[in-house]
Amino acid sequence: MPHIATLTLNPAIDVSTSTPRVEPERKLRCGPGRRDPGGGGINVARVVRRLGADSTAIYTIGGFVGRLLESLVNAEGVTSMAIPVRGETREDFTVYDEAADTQFRFVLPGPELEADEWTACLDAVRALGRWPDLFCASGSLPPGAPEDAYARIAAIVAGRGVRFALDASGPALKHALDAGVDLVKPNLREMRELTGLGLEDQASRLAACRQLIGRGAARMVALSLGSEGAMLVTADDAWQAAALDIHAVSTVGAGDSFLGAMVWALASGLPPSEAFRYGVAGGSATVLESGTALLAPEDVSRMLADVVIAAIPA
Q1: 100-125 burial string, b = 16+ CB within 10 Å, else e?
Q2: How far apart are CA 43 and CA 139, in angstroms?
Q3: Domains and CATH numbers, the chain
Q4: 134 φ, ψ to 5°?
Q5: Residue 27: its pLDDT value, please?
Q6: Pairing of strands 218-224, 181-184
Q7: Could you give the C-alpha distances from 196 to 141, 167, 205, 221, 312, in angstroms and in order?
Q8: C-alpha distances in Å from residue 225, one per residue of 140, 144, 182, 198, 255
Q9: Which phi and psi angles does 239 have, rounded to 5°?
Q10: For residue 237, which of 224, 251, 219 has the smallest C-alpha distance?
Q11: Is residue 4 within 8 Å of residue 134, measured between CB atoms?
């Protein structure tokens, strides 16, 4: 059984509900609320566990919300390495407007990490007793964390000879790519910010991914394209997958599920093209769920046959 470890520096409790209509000033009566453990790395660990692998989640916790977060993570069968911090763990909110068939997502910044709290996260990664088949860092950086946080983590993981997957944005992504990673999963907006290019067609997107690979920033680039599907690029091959024709109930956690299913497949020994297929099926399965719920494994299995992977000519 493969083992995957994840890091979430800015976790959250994801709260979701619905209301007949979102309007200003009025008191909005909502439906039942739902609370899920959240943050990129935690979501990846949850997906990995649901697909049948061992997962260890390293994440920060603070205050009452942090203790609730830890209990929710443990309830999913994920092994926790919780790092105490002084600030209160954040809560993020998703509200579904029934009349407009629209989601509103409210994301808080999270607690500011002190220097000793940030270094404790580094120490926790170094102290892993059982090093995984693959290590994944995902999510935003909290206030107080240095911009090169993921680059430092990448160096620790590389020193152990373990593959490193990353989902980040902005300066944190740029610094990590300067250090080098095995797999990076930007979306199109993040890739445009990173390159300064419009990336309006397949050829320009492929060239941008290959440029990252050519300079040693990443060995594989999984570029998510929203309604256009996704692209996976390696040094020698490239594939495109169209988005599945399904009704999206909620997009919360879809990117994390894509990455979780893909790293599970890679750690299980599947080739990149098949791991890509699992990623597309995993992200698609999550958009079938309401609120902040993640994929059901049976939906991933059912959707695999519907994912069409097409090779992109060199």
Answers
A1: eeebeeeeeebbebeeebbebbeebb
A2: 10
A3: 3-311 (3.40.1190.20)
A4: -155, 140
A5: 96
A6: parallel
A7: 22, 19, 12, 17, 23
A8: 20, 31, 20, 13, 11
A9: -135, 150
A10: 219
A11: yes
3-state secondary structure the chain: CCEEEEEECCCEEEEEEEECCCCCCCCCCCCCCEEEEECHHHHHHHHHHHCCCEEEEEEEECHHHHHHHHHHHHHCCCEEEEEECCCCCEEEEEEEECCCCEEEEECCCCCCCCHHHHHHHHHHHHCCCCCCCEEEEECCCCCCCCCCHHHHHHHHHHHCCCEEEEECCHHHHHHHHHHCEEEECCEHHHHHHHHCCCCCCHHHHHHHHHHHHHCCCEEEEEEECHHHCEEEECCCCEEEECCCCCCCCCCCCHHHHHHHHHHHHHHCCCCHHHHHHHHHHHHHHHCCCCCCCCCCHHHHHHHHCCCCEEECCC
Q: How many CA atoms lie within 13 A of 271 on its CB side?
A: 6
**In the structure encoding, which two tokens stand for residue 4, read together?**
């995957």
pLDDT digits (tens, 9 = 90+) for 160-186: 999 999 999 999 999 999 999 999 999
Which two three-digit tokens encode residue 273?
């093209």
Contact 65, 91 (CB under 8 A): yes
CA torsion, ordered 148, 150, 152, 155, to nearest 10 deg: -140
In the structure, what pLDDT confidence band is assigned to residue 265 with cuts at 50, 70 and 90? Answer: very high
Residues labelled as active-site residues: 256
Give this prediction's pTM.
Answer: 0.97
Average pLDDT, the chain: 97
Bridge partners (DSSP) of residue 51 are: none
Rounded-to-integer distance, Cα 131 and Cα 54, Å: 12
First-residue to last-residue Cα distance in the chain: 35
